[in-house]
Amino acid sequence: MKASAFSYARATSVANALELLVAYGDKAKVLSGGQSLMPAMNLRLISPELIVDIGEITELRGIAVRGDVLSIGALTRHVDLLRSPEIAAHAPLLTEAAAHVAHPAIRNRGTLGGSLAHADPAAELPACMVALNATIIVRGQTGERRITAGDFFTGIYETVLSAQELLVAVELPVVQKNSAHFFHEFARRYGDYAIAGLAAQATVKGGLFTDLRTAFFAVGDRPILAKAATKLVNVGITPAVLSEAAATLGEELEPQEDQQASASMRRYLAKILLARCASALLGRPDLIAGGPV
Question: Is the pTM higher than 0.85?
Answer without folding.
Answer: yes
